[in-house]
Design goal:
The protein is an alpha/beta fold. The protein is about 20% helix and about 25% strand. It has 6 helices and 13 strands. The longest helix has 11 residues. The structure holds manganese (II) ion.
Length: about 260
């Protein structure tokens, strides 16, 4: 039997489980709002074309509008100015082999619960590697914060009365460490791969600046990371092939070995 047929057989037998890491694209999902002087990403909007009615008796379909960076979505290198000259830096030109990769799930859910401004640093990553094994090249590094369990209206964006967002993220040294390891990219459950307060840091928005500048990717607004092992899952994250696109909403799924079955 071929390894590919083995894969689908194991999925059918549920010895490989398929887990959805995606939020539903809905008008209830919050959009990132920038200060008013900047352009704004469009929130998801759906308009019914027909639903078995006088507009089309036998068929149902919708039109929708959505920004490239809304909901569970992918950041391409060209999303940031530092990545604007990267080879294959837009979603339509990225090599499709990069859309499948093993995942390292760094669990900081407890820390993020206690401190929404939690900063992922090299020390934390190295302690994780000591416990679970080294982060290899061409793998995703994903911060588990359990942020997806938060209330969209109340504390998902977590903006305070001064307009500052309090969400976790990596510092500059952590991103430099991961780039040296040649990872695929950095993923998170929050609306921003960078910490909410990171635009006030001396080196601003290190994940966007450095990851995208190094030709690497981002994944935001993931969910169900608490259902993945620290190591051993495979992530399929394939953005829409938007011409010259800087990112895209997408369906992210994870394959996880189920040791109880098969
Ligand atoms: Mn984005």
């Amino acid at each position: 039997m071929s390894i590919l047929l083995d894969l689908v057989t194991n999925i059918k037998k549920q010895s490989i489980e398929v887990i959805d890491l995606t939020h539903t694209l809905s008008e209830n999902f919050p959009a990132l709002v920038l200060p008013s002087e900047f352009g704004q990403v469009a929130a998801f909007k759906k308009e019914e074309v027909s639903r078995y009615d006088e507009r089309g008796a036998a068929w149902y379909w919708n039109n929708f509008t959505v920004g490239e960076h809304f909901g569970t979505h992918f950041d391409a290198p060209a999303h940031w100015i530092t990545g604007k000259n990267c080879k294959n830096g837009t979603v339509d030109t990225i090599g499709v082999e990069n859309f499948i990769g093993a995942a390292n799930i760094i669990d900081a859910s407890k820390e993020c619960q206690e401190n929404p401004d939690f900063v992922l640093d090299v020390e934390f990553i190295k302690a994780w590697e000591k416990k679970h094994g080294e982060i290899e090249a061409k793998t995703w590094v994903i911060l588990r914060s359990d942020w997806y369990k938060k209330d969209f209206e109340k504390d998902f964006i977590n903006i305070d009365e001064n307009g500052l967002c309090h969400t976790p993220g990596p510092n500059k040294e952590a991103i430099e460490y991961l780039i040296k390891k040649d990872v695929l990219g950095y993923g998170c459950e929050t609306i921003n791969t960078d910490a909410g307060l990171s635009f006030t840091w001396e080196f601003q928005l290190p994940c966007h600046n450095l990851m995208q500048g190094a030709g690497k990717y981002g994944l935001q607004c993931l969910r169900n990371l608490d259902k993945l092992p620290a190591k051993g899952s495979v992530i399929i994250a394939s953005p829409l092939k938007i011409e010259d696109g800087s990112g895209s909403p997408l369906r992210v799924i994870a394959l996880v070995e189920n040791t109880n079955k098969g």
